[in-house]
Amino acid sequence: MLKLIAFATLIIVSQLPASAQSTGAPEQTQDATALLSELEPQIEAAVVRGDVVYLDGIYATDFRFTHGTGLVQNKTEWLDSVKRVRYIERKQESLEIEQHGDVALASGRLLIKSRRDTGESWYGISYLRVYQIREGRWQMLSHRTTSRWDLQPK
Predict the structure, then answer these.
(1) What SS3 state is found at 14?
(2) How high does pLDDT run on average in the chain?
(3) DSSP 3-state of 25
(4) Domain spanning 2-150: which CATH class is it, in words?
(5) Which of 4, 12, 25, 68 has CA 20 to 30 A from 114's CA?
């Protein structure tokens, strides 16, 4: 069983962008700005693809997603919703990275188009994400939507 877990972990880490992988101590991954600027749009693309295996490797075990509605989901609940909701587009409109040692904040704006049973919706969000170096790599601890607004269909 231990060999299976180690193999699964190796597969997940190998699917992360090279810049998100670390070969040693956290000191080797000090520059969060370049890494997270590359990683953030890759996360959005994975949500659109419904690639929960990739996302599972990015999110920390204790990850929390706080929606603009006030709904709070843990990692499992958020990944389950990524499987259920069909995200058509998640376009990064802006991104700013702020680093404090082994913790980094990513704030930005996304334009999102999704399809649910009730139809398509277009909206924008502002968000704040918290990352920390854990197990020698950056992991997302939290996503908090700070505002949301409806958009007109394109």
Answers:
(1) helix
(2) 85
(3) coil
(4) alpha beta
(5) 12
SS3 135: coil
Cα 110 to chain centroid distance, Å, stands at: 12
Domain regions of the chain by residue span: 2-150
Distance CA 42, CA 73 (A): 21
The parts of the chain modelled with pLDDT lower than 50 are 1-14, 19, 22-29
Helices and strands of the chain, counted as H and E runs: 4, 6
Number of other CB atoms surrounding residue 35 within 10 Å? 22
Q: Is the separation of the CB atoms in 75 and 61 below 8 Å? A: yes
Residue 76 DSSP class: H
pLDDT > 70: percent of the chain: 79
DSSP 77-133: HHHHHHHHSEEEEEEEEEEEEEEETTEEEEEEEEEEEEEETTEEEEEEEEEEEEEEE
Distances (CA, A) of 94 to 4, 42, 91, 111: 40, 14, 9, 10
